[in-house]
Design goal:
3 helices; 20% helix; Ubiquitin-like (UB roll); 7 strands; two-stranded antiparallel sheet; alpha+beta; single chain
């Protein structure tokens, strides 16, 4: 089990009941990975099934969403395989803005 802070920025909070910051507990045996966190977000936090495609594409975070783990790009941390620890901060920021 791991407790992390998850931030949805750049308009993503719209699909998470307009709440930007969430304290999330992923109740799974260690190690808990970012992939586990993503599964948890999709299965328990996105209320409208139509909103899943805003966040996920091809079983990963949708292109155009910057994903940071403790302020480091998740690509440098192993993406979905990155192991999370209590107190980590995972930020998802949409870089796609309407105009």
């Amino acid at each position: 089990m791991v407790n992390v802070k998850v931030e949805f920025l750049g308009g993503l909070d719209a699909i998470f009941e307009k709440q930007r910051v969430h304290k999330v507990t992923v109740d799974k045996e260690d190690p808990v990975t970012v992939g586990d966190l993503i599964e948890h977000i999709v299965s328990t936090m996105i209320k409208n099934p139509n909103d899943v495609t805003i966040f996920i594409e091809d079983d990963s975070i949708r292109p155009g969403i910057l994903t940071l783990i403790n302020d480091t790009d998740w690509e440098l941390e192993g993406e979905k395989d990155c192991v999370l620890e209590d107190g980590d901060i995972v930020s998802f920021t949409s870089t796609l803005h309407g105009g």
